[in-house]
Design a protein that fits this description.
Elements (H helix, E strand, L loop, with lengths): L2 H18 L1 E3 L2 E4 L5 E6 L8 E4 L2 E4 L9 E4 L7 E6 L8 E7 L8 E9 L7 E4 L5 E2 L3 E11 L4 E6 L2 E2 L8 E4 L6 E10 L8 E7 L7 E6 L2 E7 L5 E3 L8 E10 L3 E6 L2 E3 L3 E2 L5 E3 L3 E4 L2 E8 L4 H5 L2 E7 L2 E9 L12 H27 L4 H12 L9 E5 L12 H18 L19 H6 L3 E6 L15 E6 L5 H7 L1
Parallel strand pairs: 2-9, 11-19, 20-29
Antiparallel strand pairs: 1-3, 3-7, 4-5, 4-8, 6-7, 8-9, 10-12, 12-16, 13-14, 13-17, 15-16, 17-18, 19-21, 21-27, 22-23, 22-28, 24-25, 25-27, 26-27, 28-29, 30-31, 31-32
């Protein structure tokens, strides 16, 4: 029976420890000589504050601040047990624990944090293929190892001063059995290009115990055939007849190239010139980074020099490149130089625009798609309902259909104009308005009355008769008479 209260007490202690104790920080990395403050806290007053650092246990009293490890916190009555370590030692690497007994009762709670006393790693080691030179397109792999650090070091790769982000593999961290020192290794892989020639591959190690990063590096030597910087024929502008002319071409190659100029039937290999010194081929000038300036000098530029084509061949052990050059006495044209992709894009855009214009014209001419509705409206206007700038505005009545489906809009407008002219000729000038609704005289016979079944009332907005004199503020009304013809007479006229 006595074992039951003891077991119950252990369970309660575990429960209190897991739920009520807060320790800050949970883990810390410090160098030897640095300071550290660890704070343990419970939500009730405590009776004492005990802290274990390394193998030594310290009872911390708030009023005693003269020791190497002293009390930190707001007081025991607030449930805080903190330890301020003024100078960390190498042997203190490991766990730091705090124990907080309550003012009443016998259940103590304990918390633990992890202290890593930083230890500087060994020098980084860069491992790679032993060959001295590589070729363009070769695969290259290197490994960087930084041993025995606490904690593990951090590795960063650079190509000269530019950080590498592509081709970086995941780091691997290992440690010896029974040791807390850690070794980190990381690989990088890359397909070599001409731009990599002369670059320095750098493995940089950073660590909390180091005042400055440590590095291991290797110079890359990449060989590649001559490469031109611009495509197509080269034109040298700005030369003057009778003055010295220089034909400069910049190429890229590694190893250094040899050059050969062809001027007509003459072949010049630098350093060489003609017997009279009129043409001289200079040795390629290394500009750095694998770039070379190749120059041909003309003592005096003549007319025939401008009319001929010059040829240059650049060769090294891996290949060759050939150039064709022309001379021009004109200044180099200003403007933006477009690459092949940009030119192709502009041509495609122009073609799309032309196709769109052709489709719109075709649709408007045939009355298809969205132009069909507007064509129908135009047909309505030409039939006499309304014309924005015409002379005749029909008010009422219905015109008999007198046009075939194949009659053009131009013919309709011409007949409307003729009708307008006939109406103007019969209108009386002395009156402001003629009412189309006046009664028909009784003297008209019955035949004329029937012929007037096709009467159309029209309002004529008379145009300007004189450009200098404004039209009178009046509107004249006319009666327009259409007479239906018998089918036989209509066919005879047609």
């Amino acid at each position: 029976m006595a074992a039951l209260p003891a077991l119950f007490g252990l369970l309660m202690a575990a429960l209190v420890t897991g739920q009520n104790l807060d320790i800050t920080p949970r883990e810390a990395v410090r160098r030897v000589g640095d300071d550290l403050t660890v704070l343990c806290k419970v939500p009730y007053p405590i009776d004492a504050c005990r802290v274990t650092v390394g193998t030594t246990s310290y009872r911390l009293i708030p009023n005693n601040q003269d020791e190497e490890i002293v009390y930190a916190g707001q007081g025991l009555q607030h449930g805080e047990c903190g330890a301020h370590i003024k100078h960390i030692k190498e042997e203190w690497n490991g766990n730091i624990s705090c124990t907080l007994p309550p003012q009443t009762g016998q259940i103590e709670v304990t918390g633990t944090m992890r202290l890593l006393v930083a230890r500087a790693p060994g020098a980084p080691q860069l491992l790679s293929a032993p060959q001295a030179t590589f070729r363009e397109g070769d695969g290259f792999m290197a490994q960087c190892i930084v041993p025995n650090g606490r904690p593990a070091a951090k590795i960063t790769w650079y190509l000269d001063e530019v950080q590498l982000l592509a081709g970086i593999h995941q780091p691997i961290i290992t440690s010896e059995p029974g040791s807390d020192l850690m070794t980190i290794s990381q690989n990088v892989s890359r397909t070599l290009a001409p731009e990599d020639n002369g670059q320095k591959l750098v493995c940089r190690a950073e660590h909390e115990a180091l005042d400055a990063p440590r590095e291991a590096a290797r110079q890359l030597v990449v060989h590649y055939p001559p490469k031109r910087l611009e495509s197509g024929q080269i034109t040298i502008f700005g030369l003057k007849l009778g003055a010295e002319g220089r034909l400069n071409v910049t190429v890229r190659a590694n190893p250094a190239p040899t050059t050969e100029w062809t001027v007509g039937d003459l072949v010049l290999i630098p350093p060489r010139s003609t017997e009279d010194g009129s043409v001289a081929a200079l040795e390629p000038l290394h500009l750095g980074g694998g770039f070379y300036n190749v120059t041909l000098v003309l003592a005096r530029v003549a007319k025939e020099d401008v009319e001929r084509t010059y040829y240059l061949r650049v060769t090294n052990d891996l290949g060759r490149e050939e150039f064709a050059l022309r001379l021009s006495t004109m200044d180099e044209p200003a403007g933006v130089e477009l690459e092949t992709g940009a030119i192709v894009g502009i041509v495609i855009a122009i073609l799309i625009l032309l196709i769109a214009i052709v489709l719109v014209v075709f649709a408007k001419a045939t009355g298809r798609w969205f132009f069909a509705g507007s064509r129908g409206r135009d047909h309505t206007k030409s039939s006499g309902e309304s014309t924005p700038a015409g002379d005749v505005l029909l008010e009422s009545g219905t015109l008999p259909s007198r046009t075939s489906d194949t009659e053009s809009a131009a013919g309709q407008r011409s007949r409307l104009s003729a009708l307008s002219a006939r109406v103007r000729a019969v209108l009386p000038r002395g009156r402001d308005r003629v009412q189309a609704t006046e009664p028909i005289p009784e003297l008209e016979d019955k035949t004329q009355a029937e012929e007037k079944k096709g009467v159309v009332y029209a309002e004529l907005a008379l145009g300007d008769q004189n450009a200098e004199k404004p039209p009178p503020p009046s509107t004249e009304y006319a009666e327009i008479v259409y007479t239906d013809q018998p089918a036989q007479i209509k066919e005879t006229k047609e």
